[in-house]
From TrEMBL:
This is Glycoside hydrolase family 16 protein. Keywords: Hydrolase, Signal. GO terms for biological process: carbohydrate metabolic process. SUPFAM superfamilies: Concanavalin A-like lectins/glucanases. Coiled coil: none annotated. InterPro entries: Beta-glucanase-like, ConA-like_dom_sf. Residues 1-27 form the signal peptide. The keyword Cell cycle does not apply. Transmembrane segments: none annotated. Gene3D superfamilies: 2.60.120.200.
């Protein structure tokens, strides 16, 4: 989870990840799953957080936007049964520019990002459920995201939920930079928490399916070519 620009993004009850076998669709449950990789208690204390998460992006503090990630922009609250992580952006001046794709990008904000210590690799016959409850802004200039991206090269990338400042929420799967399945839908009541679930499954030993749910409703089903066996950052 990271807040890519001027935004506040929160995830309640942490992240539930179910590995190996399929679990029932349409909810946050993981019945039938073999292993919970990140428990729902991982935001309840600093010790719990440190066991499963790191700060910033997996590759550092900068990416492709006007925000630089900083540990100080990440806060834990809520305690037992209500653990919440809050990512907050604040405007800054005087920061050294970021470099992305050979171009310099002016840094206008410090923001927060966290990534899982674990890598996620869909094996033959396997899959994962990625789930959480989020409150994210959709105002112009913001870009919170809950996503998977390749450890080695790019793609794969699955945007399990992305709020790009348009008033909508996006669900995307990249096969190449020009071959992407994207679904944008209206995102009402941004002041409330919403349940996001993405079920990723091996389809044929090479490709994966990704089913995207919001508040228990199936929004879209997409496919990633050659994703099986490819390690992913969360």
């Amino acid at each position: 989870m990271w807040s890519k620009s001027d935004s506040v993004s929160r995830c309640l009850s942490a992240l539930l990840l179910a590995g190996s076998l399929s679990s029932p669709s349409g909810g946050l449950g993981v019945a039938g799953a073999k292993h919970i990789m990140i428990p729902s208690t991982s935001f309840e204390s600093q010790a719990n957080f440190d066991a499963d998460w790191n700060y910033n992006y997996p590759w550092g503090t900068d990416h492709n936007g006007a925000a630089r990630m900083a540990k100080g922009q990440v806060a834990l609250s809520g305690g037992a049964g209500a653990g919440t992580v809050t990512l907050t952006a604040r405007k800054v001046t005087g920061e050294k520019p970021a470099t992305h794709g050979g171009k310099q990008i002016a840094i206008k904000y410090l923001s927060g990002a966290v990534h899982a210590k674990e890598h996620f690799n869909v094996s033959r016959g396997g899959g994962y459920d990625f789930a959480g409850e989020f409150r994210a802004t959709t105002v112009r200039g913001t870009w919170p995201a809950f996503w998977l991206t390749a450890v080695n090269g790019w793609p794969p990338e699955v945007d399990m939920a992305e709020w790009k400042g348009s008033g909508k929420i996006s669900f995307n799967t990249f096969n190449t930079s020009s071959s992407v399945r994207a679904r944008d839908v209206a995102y009402s009541d941004a002041a409330s928490f919403h349940k996001i679930l993405c079920e990723i499954r091996d389809e044929n030993g090479r490709d994966v399916s990704a089913k995207f749910y919001m508040d228990g409703k199936l929004i879209d089903t997409q496919y990633g070519k050659g994703y099986v066996g490819q390690p992913l950052y969360l």
